[in-house]
Amino acid sequence: MKQRKSTHQKSVYYYNQWKKRKIFVMLSLLLLTGSCFVLTLNSTTTSTTTSRILTLASLRSHFVVQKPKIAFLFIARNRLPLDMLWDAFFKGQESRLSIFVHSRPGFLFNKANTRSEYFLNRQVNDSTQVDWGEATMIEAERILLRHALVDPLNERFVFLSDSCIPLYNFSYTYDYIMSTSTSFVDSFADTKEGRYNPKMAPLVPVNNWRKGSQWVVLTRKHAEVVVNDTTVFPMFQQHCKRRSLPEFWRDHPIPADTSMEHNCIPDEHYVQTLLAREGLEGEITRRSLTHSSWDLSSSKDPERRGWHPVTYKFSDATPMLIQSIKDIDNIYYETEYRREWCSSKGKPSRCFLFARKFTRPAAFRLLDMSVLGSLRKATNKS
């Protein structure tokens, strides 16, 4: 009897142990299943959140409006002697500018001839040989515009020579140029005899004949007009020939009638005449943003006086010189008896943002002085 009881108790004991283990296993499976569910839920939530963040970031980058840029178009003989001055001007403003350089064919910008990285790989690869007084100068301008227009963010196009300097920091210059919807084109009626060639008529009528500085600032619309022009440019190529000068007659045959030659000076007439012919003069501010001081006394030949601007050398580069240029607030045009008062954002302002012609020693003297030394400070802050 005792043996049966003992056997029964053992059976009950083993059954209870088996039951406890079964319950433990079931609870463990339930707990494991629940943990997997929570992990899956968290993973899905994290994935969804990450996906939403990436989607929002993508949408934001897609709809963020990038600031329009100014394309700086340099026309140089070879290298840019004032490269480091412009380096200080451009520093920190990469998102708001583009740079293009036209030098003579065969010349290549590299680290051996420029210390500024801003000018490396910025040279156009289809440059032309430029001769003063010929249409090749305006062909160089058209080449630069053609390259700059490829970037849809370029909204203004500034022509500069290799002897130009900026008078203000980049932020001031950018705001000044972008504050108006007009181009800045020095343009006035040219009444001097011999400049206009009657053979240009009727495609280029004399009443559209204009003159002005070649250092213009164009809107994108006007830049496209220049690049797409197939009428006025060929007329300049065909009928604007450099007039031979007396000092060259000893080496070349004397022209039968020099009065029949037309030294049109294409770079000072082309853009102005083209915009006048296209009826776009109402869309320009009729002045240049680049200051030049014309030499009216150095030549003994009255016909040659005023042909070339003054070149500022080391001794000329003083704070007084720069301040005198900055203080100019109006320009008088004798042929039109017109005085152009300068303004920006609807308020009276200084006329010029750039100046020429400065030698390398003169420009770097200004950079080392407080006059242009502020370029470095201003660009670092902005």
UniProtKB/TrEMBL annotation:
Subcellular locations according to the entry: Membrane
Entries under InterPro entries matching the protein: BC10-like, Glyco_trans_14
UniProt entry tagged with the keyword Transmembrane helix: yes
Pfam families for the chain: Branch
Membrane-spanning residues: 23-41
Membrane topology reported for the UniProt record: Single-pass type II membrane protein
Swiss-Prot/TrEMBL keywords: Glycoprotein, Glycosyltransferase, Membrane, Transferase, Transmembrane, Transmembrane helix
Chief site of localization: membrane
Protein's name in the database: Core-2/I-branching beta-1,6-N-acetylglucosaminyltransferase family protein
Source species: Salix suchowensis
Upper classification of the organism: Eukaryota, Viridiplantae, Streptophyta, Embryophyta, Tracheophyta
